[in-house]
Design brief:
Length: about 425
């Protein structure tokens, strides 16, 4: 179902006009309300009335996570604190969290874009939405929650944790849509199999999974184990939270709700705008938000844009499933490696399980990559030779796909720590040295 057909299927000319009007009003608002932006505009000689169309966006300054840190906690807010009705925060890997705020109108926009997301996943008022994203400062739980209420679904706000109870509630309350990170979906699926619960005894039909990168192979695993359609949903706190983009049932790219968040793809090194079809860093400009409308915010997420009309009828721009971050890329002995590439290699093999950990270290000035991967328990009761052969096969597949050598450590099922939120796939000990 299409929640807002008027917008989601609008012809491009009208959409571009709408975006231009909104952008123009936003630039003016930022000029007068956010000293940080006024200073940036003045430095580049931009006056409030200068920006009228979206092709002028490329003249405007970028915003980075560092800018948010430098202005911690509320320095980039565009409204007085009396207008702010909610605050969320995302925990960074280092230092202070990134704090984001919402006015009452922002919360309405958020519910609207999440309603579009859930509808694109096939959700409606007859659905029972099991929300296992964390509730709290993380935007996942509460973000999905209000959108789910808006479409009239029955909301089960379980939050993360307590896997056994999650399974019981899903069975007893007849959950039809599961909302959580893809890694937790897989964990739930395995716990379900271990507990002897068959997927037929559940009413689940779809899942809305996001908040971390996941591959097509992982999608297949989840779909097979839970017998559902796994929909990729994307968002980030700085832009709004979940509800920035979502796949539809075609599962062929994520529709970006570009009437609110204008996307661009730039070269992460030169910051030059790239044409559609080329991979680069995704950048967003918020044109409707009130409390924290960021201009050309650099997400560090890598993707490709596609403006062709989708088979579902939506005309809004699509982004490719995003598989890596410009800062999440590992450089091992000079070779660029994305954890998702290793995930693909591992999941293409039937013997391995989708739980892995990449340990990177530096010994005698040489980068060492060790890949820990879980294998079926039965391997450990077999002869040693079988384990050795499997290890060699994985090493060979990694080397031939990525062009780097890795040592492989096979571990028994459930050795690698599970996460109820975002999975931790990489431990880079080089940073500590
Ligand atoms: O993760 C918001 C969210 C919640 C999205 C629930 C989807 C579902 P942050 O904690 O600020 O916000 O993290 C944002 O997570 O820049 C991406 O690197 C990554 N990310 C989010 N969704 C996806 C996805 C939420 N579908 C950061 N695929 C983003 C790949 C994703 N990466």
């Amino acid at each position: 179902m299409i929640w807002n057909e008027y917008i989601e299927c609008m012809d491009r000319e009208r959409l571009v006009k709408l975006q231009g009007e909104r952008l123009s009003a936003m630039v003016e608002k930022l000029y007068y309300n956010v000293p940080f932006y006024r200073q940036k505009f003045q430095q580049s000689g931009i006056e409030p009335g200068d920006v009228k169309k979206i092709d002028q966006l490329k003249k405007l300054p970028f915003t980075t996570k560092q800018d948010l840190r430098d202005n911690y906690p509320f320095g980039l807010f565009a409204v007085p604190s009396s207008e702010v009705v909610r605050v969320h925060a995302s925990s960074g890997t280092t230092g202070k969290p990134t704090v984001v705020g919402y006015t009452r109108k922002d919360l309405e926009i958020w519910s609207e874009v999440v309603a579009r997301t859930l509808s694109a996943a096939g959700g409606g008022k007859n659905d029972v939405l099991h929300i296992a994203y964390g509730y709290g400062l993380f935007t996942g739980g509460l973000g999905i929650h209000y959108g789910a209420e808006k479409i009239g679904a029955t909301v089960i706000p379980v939050s993360g944790g307590n896997t056994q109870r999650q399974l019981q509630l899903m069975q007893d309350l007849g959950s039809t849509i599961l909302a959580c990170t893809p890694s937790y979906a897989l964990y739930l699926a395995e716990a379900m199999i271990d507990a002897g619960i068959s997927s037929e005894s559940l009413k689940l039909k779809a899942g809305v999974f996001g908040a971390e990168p996941w591959t097509e192979e992982m999608r297949r695993e989840i779909e097979n184990k839970l017998k559902i359609k796994a929909i990729d949903i994307y968002g980030l706190s700085e832009v709004i939270g979940p509800g920035v983009a979502s796949e539809c049932s075609c599962q062929n790219g994520l529709h970006i709700f570009e009437d609110h968040f204008i996307p661009e793809v730039v070269d992460p090194h030169t910051l030059e705008l790239l044409p559609d079809g080329q991979i680069g860093e995704l950048v967003f400009t918020c044109v409707t938000k009130e409390a924290l409308p960021l201009l050309r915010y650099r997400t560090r997420d890598l993707t490709v844009l596609n403006r062709e009309k989708c088979d579902c009828g939506r005309t809004i721009v699509r982004m490719k499933k995003c598989l890596g971050r410009s800062d999440g890329m590992l450089i091992i002995r000079g070779v660029n490696v994305f954890p998702s590439q290793i995930e693909t290699v591992l999941l293409e093999m039937s013997e391995t399980k989708p739980h892995y950990l990449l340990m990177v270290d530096r010994v005698n000035n040489l980068d060492i990559l060790e890949v820990w991967v879980e294998v079926e328990g039965q391997f450990f009761s077999d002869e040693i030779k079988k384990l050795e052969d499997l290890k060699k096969k994985i090493q060979h597949n990694i080397e031939s796909t990525l062009g780097i050598s890795a040592t492989v450590k096979l571990v028994e099922p459930k050795t690698i720590e599970r996460s109820e939120g975002k999975a931790k796939r990489v431990i880079d000990n080089r940073k500590l040295k």
